TrEMBL record:
Belongs to the aldolase class II family. AraD/FucA subfamily. This is L-ribulose-5-phosphate 4-epimerase. One of its GO terms (molecular function) is aldehyde-lyase activity. The keyword Flavoprotein does not apply. The lineage of its organism: Bacteria, Pseudomonadati, Pseudomonadota, Alphaproteobacteria, Hyphomicrobiales. Residues 8-196 form the Class II aldolase/adducin N-terminal domain. Its EC number is 5.1.3.4. Keywords: Carbohydrate metabolism, Isomerase, Metal-binding, Zinc. Its cofactor is Zn(2+). It comes from Rhizobium leucaenae. It holds the Pfam family Aldolase_II.
């Protein structure tokens, strides 16, 4: 089978996503990009995770044209492709409807860095996008979803804040490869849950100091990492 290594990595990441409990039914999807060959491998649309196998993973070019595979690619393909074009350092994209992150997204609220758990994985506020206009929903909706994510990240390093909450919809995460992107989706859901309950307890919006944010993020992902952690921003 062609593109078997990329397909297998994407299949395994989709299985991990399902086993993590971040998705139910056919919600969500994982893709990865091979930038050298200009191809994307993505979950097929509407297929049960339990029934998926390597040959079901659909391979497209960066225009979204299917180059190998018998099934329809995920309905979110154009969002994934838009993120690959906007964020050159990422190697994979994950979309979920995980409960807490989706609740923050549907509420139109960004998740501020309320504590060190957040700071360990996200170097600042996890942004929420603006709502799409009726025209953006009518024309090129899926690609426009990717555009408002890139807009919400602004000048932030996408590997330092590897997630965004799409208003009215749900979270998109990314990483250097499919396993990293799924891990970031798991960390996002944990942070979203802690943030929800922290705000319920405190009845106000909390935010840690820039010094504490930087200390925690840098010690896990910065150049001075002492734990031998791979630098998250390795190029793909
Ligand atoms: O966001 C949505 C639906 O709201 C989609 O992500 C579905 O959750 C999964 O669609 P497929 O990947 O099966 O096409």
């Amino acid at each position: 089978m062609k593109y078997s290594a990329l397909r297998k990595a994407v299949l395994d990441a989709n299985f991990e996503l399902y086993e993590s409990g971040l998705v139910i039914s056919t919600f969500g999807n994982v893709s990865a990009i091979d930038r050298q060959n200009g191809i994307v491998a993505i979950k097929p649309s509407g297929v049960s995770y339990k029934a998926m196998n390597t040959s079901d993973i659909v391979v497209t070019d960066l225009d979204g044209t299917i180059i190998d595979g018998d099934m329809r690619p995920s309905s979110d393909l154009d969002t994934h492709i838009e993120l690959y074009k906007s964020f050159k350092a990422i190697g994979a994209v994950v979309h979920t409807h995980s409960f807490y992150a989706t609740a923050w997204a549907q509420s139109g609220r960004a998740i501020p860095a309320m504590g060190t758990t957040h700071a360990d994985y996200f170097n600042g506020t996890i942004p929420v996008t603006r709502q799409l206009t009726d025209a953006e929903i009518r024309d090129d909706y899926v690609r426009n979803t990717g555009r408002v994510i890139a807009e919400a990240l602004g000048n932030n390093d996408p590997l330092a804040i590897p997630a965004a909450l799409v208003n009215d919809h749900g979270p998109f995460c990314w990483g250097v490869d499919a396993a990293d992107a799924v891990h970031n989706a798991e960390m996002l859901e944990a942070v979203a849950r802690i943030a929800f309950h922290s705000r319920q307890i405190s009845q106000e919006s909390l935010e840690i100091s820039a010094a504490l944010l930087d200390r925690h993020f840098q010690r896990k992902h910065g150049k001075s990492a002492t734990y031998g952690q791979p630098a998250r921003s390795k190029q793909v």
